[in-house]
Amino acid sequence: MPSQITHLAIAKRYLEKHPQTIFDVQAFLDGNILPDLAADKANAHCGVRTEMHDLVKRNREKVDPVKFAMTHDMHDDLNKGQYLHLYVDYQFYNVFLLEYFKNITIEQSAIDMYEVTRRDDRYLEKKYQVAYSDSTLHEELQKINDLWDKENAELRCNPAYKFAFPYKTEELDAFIEEISEIAIPQV
Fold it and tell me: How many domains does the chain have?
Protein backbone atom coordinates (compact mmCIF):
# COMPACT_ATOMS: atom_id res chain seq x y z
CA MET A 1 0.00 0.00 0.00
CA PRO A 2 1.16 3.53 -0.49
CA SER A 3 2.19 4.96 2.86
CA GLN A 4 0.36 7.83 4.51
CA ILE A 5 3.38 10.02 3.70
CA THR A 6 2.94 9.05 0.03
CA HIS A 7 -0.72 10.04 0.25
CA LEU A 8 0.21 13.38 1.83
CA ALA A 9 2.88 14.05 -0.81
CA ILE A 10 0.34 13.43 -3.57
CA ALA A 11 -2.24 15.61 -1.80
CA LYS A 12 0.26 18.47 -1.53
CA ARG A 13 1.21 18.17 -5.20
CA TYR A 14 -2.50 18.12 -6.07
CA LEU A 15 -3.03 21.32 -4.07
CA GLU A 16 -0.11 22.99 -5.86
CA LYS A 17 -1.49 22.01 -9.28
CA HIS A 18 -5.18 22.69 -8.53
CA PRO A 19 -5.25 25.56 -6.00
CA GLN A 20 -8.76 26.71 -6.90
CA THR A 21 -10.45 23.34 -6.36
CA ILE A 22 -9.92 22.92 -2.59
CA PHE A 23 -11.24 25.45 -0.08
CA ASP A 24 -10.60 23.63 3.21
CA VAL A 25 -7.02 22.44 2.84
CA GLN A 26 -6.91 20.77 6.27
CA ALA A 27 -10.07 18.75 5.58
CA PHE A 28 -8.59 17.69 2.23
CA LEU A 29 -5.31 16.57 3.82
CA ASP A 30 -7.17 14.70 6.57
CA GLY A 31 -9.38 13.03 3.95
CA ASN A 32 -6.26 11.69 2.27
CA ILE A 33 -5.45 9.82 5.50
CA LEU A 34 -8.88 8.84 6.80
CA PRO A 35 -9.48 5.58 4.84
CA ASP A 36 -6.39 3.96 6.37
CA LEU A 37 -7.51 4.80 9.91
CA ALA A 38 -10.90 3.09 9.62
CA ALA A 39 -11.51 -0.07 11.62
CA ASP A 40 -13.29 -1.59 8.61
CA LYS A 41 -10.85 -0.87 5.79
CA ALA A 42 -12.90 -2.75 3.16
CA ASN A 43 -15.87 -0.47 3.82
CA ALA A 44 -13.74 2.68 4.02
CA HIS A 45 -12.14 1.79 0.67
CA CYS A 46 -15.55 0.92 -0.88
CA GLY A 47 -14.17 -2.46 -1.85
CA VAL A 48 -15.22 -6.03 -1.40
CA ARG A 49 -13.48 -8.79 0.51
CA THR A 50 -12.13 -11.31 -1.93
CA GLU A 51 -9.83 -14.30 -2.27
CA MET A 52 -6.48 -13.82 -0.61
CA HIS A 53 -4.55 -16.17 -2.93
CA ASP A 54 -5.16 -14.11 -6.10
CA LEU A 55 -3.41 -10.81 -5.39
CA VAL A 56 -4.28 -9.23 -8.73
CA LYS A 57 -8.01 -9.93 -8.27
CA ARG A 58 -7.84 -8.91 -4.61
CA ASN A 59 -6.15 -5.60 -5.48
CA ARG A 60 -8.66 -4.87 -8.22
CA GLU A 61 -11.63 -5.43 -5.90
CA LYS A 62 -10.42 -4.04 -2.57
CA VAL A 63 -10.79 -0.36 -3.46
CA ASP A 64 -13.39 1.43 -5.61
CA PRO A 65 -13.01 5.21 -6.00
CA VAL A 66 -15.92 5.38 -8.47
CA LYS A 67 -18.30 3.82 -5.95
CA PHE A 68 -17.11 6.33 -3.35
CA ALA A 69 -17.71 9.29 -5.68
CA MET A 70 -21.21 8.04 -6.51
CA THR A 71 -22.19 7.73 -2.84
CA HIS A 72 -20.61 10.84 -1.29
CA ASP A 73 -20.92 14.62 -1.63
CA MET A 74 -18.00 15.42 -3.90
CA HIS A 75 -18.24 19.14 -3.18
CA ASP A 76 -16.99 18.45 0.37
CA ASP A 77 -13.20 18.81 0.67
CA LEU A 78 -12.89 15.95 3.18
CA ASN A 79 -14.60 13.67 0.64
CA LYS A 80 -12.36 15.00 -2.14
CA GLY A 81 -9.39 13.96 -0.02
CA GLN A 82 -10.84 10.51 0.60
CA TYR A 83 -11.56 10.11 -3.10
CA LEU A 84 -7.96 11.01 -3.95
CA HIS A 85 -6.75 8.47 -1.39
CA LEU A 86 -8.88 5.72 -2.97
CA TYR A 87 -7.86 6.73 -6.49
CA VAL A 88 -4.18 6.60 -5.49
CA ASP A 89 -4.60 3.17 -3.89
CA TYR A 90 -6.41 1.80 -6.94
CA GLN A 91 -3.79 3.12 -9.37
CA PHE A 92 -0.92 2.01 -7.12
CA TYR A 93 -2.14 -1.59 -6.94
CA ASN A 94 -3.63 -2.00 -10.41
CA VAL A 95 -1.39 0.07 -12.66
CA PHE A 96 1.86 1.13 -10.98
CA LEU A 97 2.60 -2.27 -9.37
CA LEU A 98 0.44 -4.60 -11.44
CA GLU A 99 3.38 -6.64 -12.80
CA TYR A 100 4.92 -6.96 -9.34
CA PHE A 101 1.69 -8.35 -7.88
CA LYS A 102 1.34 -10.90 -10.68
CA ASN A 103 4.47 -12.73 -9.52
CA ILE A 104 4.54 -12.48 -5.74
CA THR A 105 2.98 -14.17 -2.71
CA ILE A 106 0.89 -12.20 -0.26
CA GLU A 107 3.46 -12.88 2.48
CA GLN A 108 6.35 -11.63 0.36
CA SER A 109 4.39 -8.59 -0.79
CA ALA A 110 3.56 -7.64 2.80
CA ILE A 111 7.18 -7.36 3.86
CA ASP A 112 8.30 -5.81 0.57
CA MET A 113 5.60 -3.14 0.93
CA TYR A 114 6.67 -2.51 4.51
CA GLU A 115 10.30 -2.05 3.54
CA VAL A 116 9.59 0.13 0.51
CA THR A 117 7.21 2.41 2.40
CA ARG A 118 9.80 2.97 5.12
CA ARG A 119 12.35 3.89 2.46
CA ASP A 120 9.79 6.09 0.67
CA ASP A 121 8.75 7.91 3.83
CA ARG A 122 12.27 9.15 4.54
CA TYR A 123 12.70 10.20 0.91
CA LEU A 124 9.28 11.89 0.53
CA GLU A 125 9.48 13.75 3.84
CA LYS A 126 12.55 15.56 2.53
CA LYS A 127 11.61 15.99 -1.11
CA TYR A 128 7.98 17.06 -0.66
CA GLN A 129 8.27 18.57 2.84
CA VAL A 130 5.52 16.35 4.26
CA ALA A 131 5.04 14.91 7.72
CA TYR A 132 2.36 13.21 9.78
CA SER A 133 1.82 16.58 11.45
CA ASP A 134 0.34 17.90 8.18
CA SER A 135 -2.81 16.05 9.23
CA THR A 136 -4.82 16.65 12.38
CA LEU A 137 -4.89 12.83 12.55
CA HIS A 138 -1.12 12.65 13.14
CA GLU A 139 -1.37 10.93 16.54
CA GLU A 140 -3.49 8.13 15.09
CA LEU A 141 -1.06 7.83 12.17
CA GLN A 142 1.88 7.51 14.53
CA LYS A 143 0.12 4.80 16.55
CA ILE A 144 -0.70 2.61 13.55
CA ASN A 145 2.79 3.03 12.13
CA ASP A 146 4.41 2.17 15.47
CA LEU A 147 2.24 -0.97 15.57
CA TRP A 148 3.21 -1.84 12.00
CA ASP A 149 6.89 -1.42 12.92
CA LYS A 150 6.50 -3.82 15.86
CA GLU A 151 4.65 -6.36 13.70
CA ASN A 152 7.42 -6.35 11.11
CA ALA A 153 10.45 -6.16 13.44
CA GLU A 154 10.92 -9.92 13.68
CA LEU A 155 10.80 -10.45 9.93
CA ARG A 156 13.23 -7.59 9.33
CA CYS A 157 15.79 -9.18 11.66
CA ASN A 158 15.55 -12.65 10.13
CA PRO A 159 18.73 -13.10 8.04
CA ALA A 160 16.98 -15.76 5.93
CA TYR A 161 14.43 -13.25 4.74
CA LYS A 162 15.15 -11.52 1.46
CA PHE A 163 13.18 -8.54 0.32
CA ALA A 164 13.18 -6.52 -2.85
CA PHE A 165 12.10 -2.98 -3.58
CA PRO A 166 9.42 -3.29 -6.26
CA TYR A 167 10.21 0.16 -7.69
CA LYS A 168 12.78 2.96 -7.60
CA THR A 169 12.19 6.36 -6.01
CA GLU A 170 12.34 7.96 -9.46
CA GLU A 171 9.41 5.80 -10.52
CA LEU A 172 7.52 6.86 -7.40
CA ASP A 173 8.19 10.52 -8.26
CA ALA A 174 6.74 9.97 -11.73
CA PHE A 175 3.70 8.25 -10.19
CA ILE A 176 3.16 11.18 -7.80
CA GLU A 177 3.39 13.70 -10.62
CA GLU A 178 1.00 11.76 -12.85
CA ILE A 179 -1.58 11.02 -10.15
CA SER A 180 -1.62 14.60 -8.85
CA GLU A 181 -2.86 15.74 -12.27
CA ILE A 182 -6.26 14.03 -11.96
CA ALA A 183 -9.50 15.92 -11.89
CA ILE A 184 -11.51 14.92 -8.84
CA PRO A 185 -15.12 14.29 -9.93
CA GLN A 186 -17.76 16.79 -8.83
CA VAL A 187 -20.73 14.40 -8.93
Answer: 1
